[in-house]
Design goal:
The protein is mainly alpha-helical.
Length: about 140
């Protein structure tokens, strides 16, 4: 096998493993949030709202179109979990968790953390190494 073929095979193997890890993480997340009666997209959005967050930033974080965030914000507001508020620039709308939203956010975060298969399978130094590698991969 040539160096180029070996490199391609390694790339395929890494890609397959990353996809499997991502799919398993998504499945575990969905299982973790299901007892709270919140659809996965709303749970993901709520977990981001540690501070009032510009809706465009929320879209970037969730890797979705900003127009989709409007629907998520509507649903979170309808459930009493978040509210829109003005930013320092009045053209920018922020989304912030309500007191009820923060309480649910904390419960969801705990449930997700307790079930996270990565934290169950890796010890703290391994998790730190993985975090550094993922940051390096994701660094723009």
């Amino acid at each position: 096998m040539s160096d180029r073929e070996a490199e391609l095979e390694q790339s395929r193997r890494l890609s397959r493993m990353l996809i499997l890890v991502a799919e398993r993480a998504k499945m575990t997340f969905a299982e973790s949030v299901s007892p709270f009666g919140l659809p996965v997209p709303l749970a993901r959005a709520l977990l981001v709202l540690a501070t009032p967050t510009p809706m465009r930033e929320l879209a970037d974080h969730l890797a979705c179109d900003p127009s989709y965030i409007t629907g998520l914000a509507d649903q979170l507001e309808e459930r009493g979990l978040a509210r829109r508020c003005p930013g320092t620039d009045r053209r920018v709308k922020l989304l912030e968790a309500t007191q009820e939203g923060f309480a649910l956010r904390d419960r969801i975060s705990l449930a997700v953390t307790e079930r996270a298969f990565i934290t169950q399978r890796l010890d703290p130094p391994e998790r730190e190494t993985l975090a550094r590698l993922l940051e390096q991969i994701l660094d723009e």
